[in-house]
Structures are given as C-alpha cells and as structure tokens.
Amino acid sequence: MLLHQQFVVIAKRYAKKLAVIDKTTEKNVTYSRALIGALILSSKFKKYDEGFIGIMIPTSAGCALATVGALMSGRIPVMINYSTGAEENAKYAKKKCKFRTIITSRALLEKIKCPVIDGMIMIEDIMESVTTGEKLRAALTTKLPVNMILNRVHKGDENDTAAILFTSGSEKDPKAVQLTHRNLASNIKNFGDYVKITDKDILLANLVFFHIFGLTVNLWVAFYYGMTMVAYSNPLDFQTVSKIARDEKPTIMVGTPSFFWGYLNKSEPGDFKTLRLMVAGADKCPDALRDGYKQKHGVTLLEGYGATETSPVISVNSHEYNRPGSTGRVIPGVQVRIENFETGEECKIKEVGKILVKGDLVMKGYYDDPELTSEALVDGWYNTGDMGYFDEDGYLFHAGRFKRFAKIGGEMVSLVKVENILEKFLPAGVACCVIEIFDEKKGSEIIATVTREVHKIEILRKMGNELPNIALPRQFIVIKELPMMSTGKIDFRSVTKLVQEHLKDQKLSSGVPGA
Fold first, then answer.
1. Which is it for strands 120-122 and 396-401: parallel, antiparallel or unpaired?
2. What is the C-alpha separation between 38 and 147, in angstroms, rounded?
3. Predicted confidence band at 292 (pLDDT cuts at 50, 70, 90)?
4. How many CB atoms lie within 10 A of CB 339?
5. CA distance 486 to 81
6. Residue range 343-362: mean pLDDT, rounded
7. Span 214-220, average pLDDT
8. CA–CA gap between residue 159 and residue 442 (Å, rounded)
9. Phi-psi region of 67 (alpha: psi -120 to 50; beta: other; left: phi over 0)
10. Cα separation, 31 vs 424, whole angstroms
11. pLDDT in tens, 245-262
C-alpha cells in the first residue's frame, strides 16, 4: 500500500483522534479534518504541472498535509531546505529536478527574508481560495467507505518515487535522492516493529521534514501508525521544545545530538520523563549526553544509525538490546556487510571496513545522475561512504565517514575516534571538531578546533595514553561557534575552510616566505 493510501485507511480508522497538535499555530487537527485538508490540497495541486512539486513549509500540520496532498494528486514532493540558503536551495532544486511550482508560506519567507522566486505559490493563498463548496465536497468524500476514497486519489505503484530529498552537502553539492513508497514504508514498518511503536504513542515532531530523519520518523511514522503528532517548527528553540515535552507528554522523540544537548541544557528536571523511546542519530552520541538525560530526566537516550539513501534507519539500539557506544543492532529486513576497503573481502569481527547496506530501504537512485548512482549502488548494495565494524554480539559500531579517515605516515587514522577521545578531556561545555589539513611540505596533519581556549599540553598528554603519536592533533584552533548544517550536524566543509583561512593568516603574520 502506498503511503498516502495508508494515510486514508488510518484517517478513516481514527477519525476522531487528534492527528496533529500544532504548537506553532496552536491548532489541533483530528484525523477526520486532516483527511479533509489533504483532499482539498490534492484537488488544488492538480492545477499545477504533473511530476515534481516543491514543498518548502516549516514542520507543521500544513507541511504534513501538503506532503500527503501532493502524493494524493499524483505529484512527487521535492522537500526543500529553507533553513540555510532558502533562495539558493529552491533554485537549485528547481534546476536539478526540472520543475516549476513550489508550495511555500508567506510567513516563512518573511521570517527568513527569502525573496519570492518564480513559481512559488503561497499556502496561505491556497487556503484562502478554498470555497464552501470545496470544503463540503471534501467532507462528504471522507464519509465514503475506504475503498471508494482510495479510488478517488492517485493509485500508482510502490516503486514510484514518494519523495525527493537532498543530501546535506556537508562534503560536496547536494544530491537528489529518490525514495520510493516501498523504501519508506518498509523502513517505517521494520523500524516500528523493532522498537514496538503503536497507535497509542505520541510523537514529538520537532525535526524538519526536508531531512530524512524528520520526513520518515516524524511525519510518516506518525501517520502510518495512527499516532498523535505534536509538531513544532523550530528545533533550535530548546526551551520551548522542553516545555512542549512537559505539557504534551510525548512517548517518542528523535533528534540529533546537538539538538539533544540544547534540550538537556534548557530543560527542567523531568521535562522529558514520559519518553519511552528517545533516539539520537545523524551524528555520534557522546556518553556525557546519555548520562545527562539519565540523571536529569530518568530516560535512556538510545543511539541509531541511518542515511538519506536508506530511508533512513539501518540500525538502532532498543531497551532490550542496548550497547552504549554502538549504533545498535541492524533492524529486521536489512542486510549490512562490512567490507575491507582495499581487498573488497568481508571483514572479520571488530575489523573496520566500509559499511554496505541492502534491502527494500535502499533508494531508487540519485535523480538524473546515473554515474553517481552506479558508484553508490552495486548489485543492490549501497555504499554508505561510512566506516564501521560489528562486535561479537552483532552490534554495529560507526567509525566515521570514509572521508573522515586521514592517511598519516601510511596509517589510516579515524578523525571520529580522535574526536571521541579529545571530548573526554575537554572542560564541560566545550565542543570540538577534528579535521585533516594537507600541506604540500608536511603532508597531512590533524587539526583540532575547539569552541574556547583549552590547556592543550595537558590534553595532548592524556590523549597520548590512548592514541599513537601520529593521531594526535598538531594544533588547536579556537572557533567560538562551529558551523552547523540545518540537520544539526557539524559542517566539516565550512570548518575546514575556516581553519585554512586561519592557517593562512598565521603564516602571513609570522612572515613565512611564499605564504
């Protein structure tokens, strides 16, 4: 069953139940009203070109229903990042996927100071144009039996694209990932079964829907199972999100470690105590963060692992099977192979290699990019570009991006491992990012960036007890605010650029010839 068809079935089954508690607009929407709204939007979207349609609306009932309505109308939602460079991202998406119409919000454009570009249609104008007759027709349609409603919405095939999402672009230009109904639905079911999600759960949806973590686990998981979604548009409003958690008593919440740090610091003890499932993903989860949630809120913060191209969940810790430091066990229906990056042979237990993934969760491919697709997908196996290993009990450990390994003195050094050890010895509240800088004379060097001055000699002495000399940072550079992606990940490309500029200035000020 396609995602929007599943939504129709669920909306009929739980008609009187709250589908969305929208904390941005302070509006509550039942499943019955959500179905009416999606049907109205579907009929409106049919006026626009077939194929792709851009969606650029903050996390809200409006964005959720526009996404469902697009699929109901036979259009494919292209989810556009509005939090960093909205105008540039909207133009990039239109050019890359060759479409004209973007559904957006006037309130959003004003807030982020984004100009109106050609093809933008305001959701406020669409809703204002809805006539009493259109509302009545949609309301009457929702009273029909499920099969009759399903006959009135787009049918299609489970291998049809259900969404286009763009990779973060932290290392290069964003790629347009095509995810099918089969990709997303299989991942939702396999993940949901593994962590025992039910319609009784209340989900705190604080993530953006243009990121796979938000689209799958915040939007579609809620509508697939018939949960109540508590939506809030700004994950960086740490205090408000904490208050929402206290007031609405959600049972499930996911996020990035950087977001969870914000909630931990701004929350009152017990704000998150109703959460039975709290999962951190998209970046490594420090022990101090796990300890903080246990001490302050009495909840266990679990770690998971995924990728945009895998819809996203590959592995996750659960309450039954939890090994802190790992990214958990591989969820049902997913195969993972750890392959030696030089020989291509399968790695032994605890041997670090490339993480390859196979299953219904793996994307159709990158849109209009057969070359990149054939590089990433070989015989159904997706090369994540990540390095990792399995332990003897089948827990998957993430060792960092392949690109986050530096070859120093002929040895492969994991920058993530260096970061993990550095974090242990940093004062509370100091964040870090470790990068590789190549120098033509000296070769590759490891540079540590920290958010404030630290006692470098003492830290390096402690790190030296756990790391070989070649893996120790050669310099510490202070960057008061580490650049972040909208997803909460550190923007390594921007950090590297800042460090290169700093080192260049350093050379100039020291009068190094040829600098």
1. unpaired
2. 17
3. very high
4. 16
5. 8
6. 95
7. 97
8. 51
9. alpha
10. 47
11. 999 999 999 999 989 999
Beta strands in 317-420 (DSSP E): 329-330, 334-339, 353-359, 365-366, 377-378, 381-390, 396-401, 405-408, 411-414
The side-by-side arrangement of strands in the sheet containing 120-122 is: 120-122, 102-104, 52-56, 76-79, 161-166, 176-180, 365-366
Taking a C-beta distance cutoff of 8 angstroms, is the pair 79, 57 a contact? no
User: How large is the average pLDDT for residues 292-302?
Assistant: 97
User: Of 258-272, 283-297, 426-440, 470-484, which gets the smallest average pLDDT?
Assistant: 426-440
Where would I find the H helices in 351-483?
Answer: 370-376, 415-425, 456-464
233/486: higher pLDDT = 233
259: helix, coil or strand?
Answer: helix
Tell me the C-alpha distance between 201 and 426, whole Å.
Answer: 38
How does DSSP assign 209-237, residue by residue?
TTSHIIIIIIIIHHHHHTPEEEE-S-TT-
Rounded distance between C-alpha atoms, residue 212 and residue 179, angstroms: 10
Q: Give the pLDDT score at 335.
A: 98
- How do residues 163-189 score in pLDDT, each as one tens digit? 999 987 655 678 999 999 999 999 999
- CB count, 10 Å around CB of 11? 26
232-256 b/e with 16+ CB inside 10 Å = b?
bbbbebbeebbbbbeeeebbbbbbb
Place of tokens 């904390």: 23
Are residues 248 and 223 in contact, defined by beta-carbon separation less than 8 angstroms?
no
pLDDT score at 514: 46
Which residues partner with 156 through β-bridges? Answer: none
Compute φ and ψ for 323, nearest 5 degrees: -125, 95
435 SS3 class: strand
Q: Provide the residue type at 358 as one letter.
A: K
Nearest to 436 by CA among 448, 419, 426, 427: 448
Cβ partners under 8 Å of residue 378, min gap 6: none
CA-CA distances (angstroms) from residue 193 to 198, 225, 333?
9, 11, 11
Q: Which residue has the tokens 């960086």?
A: 236
Whole-number pLDDT of residue 203: 98
For residue 487, the model assigns a pLDDT of: 65
Mean pLDDT of the region 340-353: 92
Q: Are 341 and 319 in contact (CB under 8 A)?
A: no
Residue found under tokens 């790992």: 326
